[in-house]
Amino acid sequence: MSHIRLFIDEDSMDHRVVNALRSRGVDVTTVGEVRTTGFSDAEQLELATEQQRVLYTFNVGDFCQLHNIYMAEGRTHTGIMISSQDYAIGEQMRRVLKLMATESAESMINQLVFLSAYIGES
């Protein structure tokens, strides 16, 4: 089983979250680093899938819709992880780490996961 690698979209591209995750050994890249800021959500999901990364976002509506389109069309993506903007940096990190401790890259294929289901450890 492979470890989850993250692709953080424009809405959730906070350098504090990125740095906190990297300091804990998480493989993270952002739309800013790959210079795709301003690309459509569909293009970002395609890029994340090409790079075999789970897309991390706050954008519930658009990515739920994209996930449904992918499933209806029989297309594959490498996973979408949706977080709440209301979570503090530490809470986002704890929830991501909890998810990563229980899921693999393979188990995330075609999954849309809400971080609200993963309560971080204190």
Automatic annotation (TrEMBL):
Residues 5-116 form the DUF5615 domain. It comes from the Bacteria. It comes from Stenomitos frigidus ULC18. This is DUF5615 domain-containing protein. Pfam families: DUF5615 (PF18480).
